[in-house]
Amino acid sequence: MIYPLLILNILLLVCGQTLWKIGLKNKTLAFTFDSIMNLIFNPYILCGVLLYGVATLIWLYILSKSDLSLVYPLQSLCYVLALFVSIFILNESVPTNRWIGVGFIILGSFFIGIK
């Protein structure tokens, strides 16, 4: 039961980050009241915060049922999914060194997940 919840948690976190990135597109952040209010009430930012809230509740449940030394490293698969989201949704280019890093994350997650 923990692995499906962990996958859901990863999906929610990456979706939240993606919404934040979209919400910040073409925005200039300034520490003024108006800028902060516009940021807070941006629908993409709000949806991202909501997804992060749900992900946090799921994460608390996961932590109550599993070893941190198992689930926390597996959550690094967020970085792998985020790389693909960056390419296919945000149209970012990904250099070779990031692909190599993601390969190490996948390999490490595999070894951690082995019983």
From TrEMBL:
GO (cellular component) term, any one: plasma membrane
InterPro entries hit by this protein: EamA_dom, EmrE-like, Small_drug/metabolite_transptr
BP GO annotations: lipopolysaccharide biosynthetic process
Hydrolase among keywords: no
GO molecular function: transmembrane transporter activity
Membrane spanning stretches: 40-63, 70-90, 96-114
Pfam family, one: EamA
Membrane topology field: Multi-pass membrane protein
Coiled-coil stretches noted in the UniProt entry, renumbered to this chain: none
Domain EamA, chain residue ranges per copy: 36-112
Keywords, comma-separated and alphabetical: Cell inner membrane, Cell membrane, Lipid A biosynthesis, Lipid biosynthesis, Lipid metabolism, Lipopolysaccharide biosynthesis, Membrane, Transmembrane, Transmembrane helix
Subcellular location, record wording: Cell membrane
Family, similarity comment: Belongs to the EamA transporter family.
PANTHER family: 4-AMINO-4-DEOXY-L-ARABINOSE-PHOSPHOUNDECAPRENOL FLIPPASE SUBUNIT ARNF-RELATED (PTHR30561:SF9), SMR FAMILY PROTON-DEPENDENT DRUG EFFLUX TRANSPORTER SUGE (PTHR30561)
Protein name: EamA family transporter
Organism of provenance: Clostridium perfringens
